[in-house]
Design brief:
The structure is a single chain. By secondary structure, the protein is an all-alpha fold. The protein is built from 14 helices and two strands. Strands 1-2 form a two-stranded antiparallel sheet. Strand 1 and strand 2 form a beta hairpin. Helix 4 crosses helix 9 and helix 7 packs antiparallel against helix 14. The protein starts with 19 loop residues before the first strand and ends with a helix.
Length: 342
């Protein structure tokens, strides 16, 4: 993955030069990242996030999700800042007039998503939260359609429907009658809000393709920390949460370590880099694998075999992803050939 700017300063204003072909970026001259690399990076990030909910649910017994999120992204921000300083120097911390936008993106992605998705565990099951996360491709397609005033390609819409159908089979075991009760309404609403926040962050990253993935990840994470800290202080002041003790924090070292290193640092960098290669709409499709991963992790922890509907649902998710990305790769190849002939 790149840790350096790939374009000189004089070309950094050309962020709109990546034309959309099937909602995937067409690589510019000098950008030789293969789509398979983007697919692999998004896949790895989503697998790491899939195990996040069972881990966070276990941690929530001793450390509330507000303080856990503050510790998580506060630590990730420091690590990314050190990595960025070593890789690109002090100049990489210049916001270049994008401070407000980067703060909004970071606050949405790490504050909005990080706080609400995990807080939703207090009100509903991880199954329902995962189902809301699986709405991200549809949310992304709708936002992309509004932004560009065009509908997504038919194969992308078909992939969204197929993958979502598969996710619902995995999560409900084919029984939709008792999916969501009135008691779950708040948790489901929080999870849906979290999904929207993450889609906005992912789409926002496409405006910074002239920056390295490390720079965008580091600056948005750093700028999100004050927002997360403010939310934590307010929640504590009104009595919604209680600060955890030092022993509680130290006792959750394994869970916090996973949230920081794997679901935080590595997943964020891989996700941003993968979406830079294959585009935010195509990248967001991989979120459908997140609840499948969660299901597998929980099944392993409880030593239960997956049911037939769950297996069929997992195959549908994979089929939707494979179908979409085969079409994306074909359109990228056609676009590159047309560009070479021009």
């Amino acid at each position: 993955m790149s840790t350096h700017n790939t374009q000189p300063e004089s070309h950094q204003t050309h962020t709109g030069s990546h034309r959309a072909v099937g909602y995937a970026p067409v690589p510019e001259p000098g950008h030789h990242a293969h789509p398979l690399k983007g697919i692999l990076l998004c896949l790895l990030a989503v697998v790491l996030w899939g195990a996040m909910y069972p881990v966070a649910d276990h941690l929530a017994h001793t450390v509330n999700m507000f303080h856990a999120t503050l510790i998580r992204y506060g630590t990730v921000a420091l690590i990314l800042a050190a990595m960025l300083y070593r890789a690109e120097g002090k100049k990489a911390f210049h916001l270049e007039g994008h401070g407000v936008n980067l703060w909004l993106l970071g606050s949405a992605g790490f504050g909005g998503f990080g706080l609400t998705a995990l807080t939703a565990l207090s009100y509903t099951s991880s199954t329902n939260i995962s189902l809301m996360m699986a709405t991200m491709p549809a949310i992304s397609a709708v936002i992309a359609g509004i932004a560009t005033r065009t509908l997504p390609p038919r194969y992308t819409m078909a992939a969204i429907v197929i993958a979502f159908a598969g996710v619902s089979l995995v999560l409900t075991n084919g029984d939709y009658t008792h999916l969501i009760s009135s008691q779950d309404a708040l948790g489901v609403a929080l999870a849906l809000f979290a999904a929207i926040c993450w889609v906005l962050y992912t789409r926002g990253s496409s405006s910074y393709e002239h920056w390295s993935t490390l720079r965008f990840s580091a600056l948005t994470t750093l700028l999100s920390v004050p927002s997360i800290a403010a939310a934590t202080l307010i929640a504590t002041a009104v009595g919604y949460i209680q600060p955890p003790g030092l022993q509680d924090i130290l006792g959750g070292w394994f869970e916090l370590g996973y949230l920081i290193i794997f679901a935080g640092l590595l997943a964020v960098i891989w996700w941003n880099e993968g979406n830079k290669i294959i585009g935010p709409v195509n990248g967001t499709l991989f979120v459908n694998l997140e609840p499948v991963t969660t299901f597998v992790v929980v099944a392993c922890m409880t030593a239960t075999l997956p049911s037939v509907p769950a297996v069929l649902g997992s195959l549908l998710v994979i089929a939707g992803l494979v179908m979409n990305n085969l079409y994306v790769r074909r359109e990228l190849k056609d676009a590159e050939q047309a560009e070479s002939k021009a």
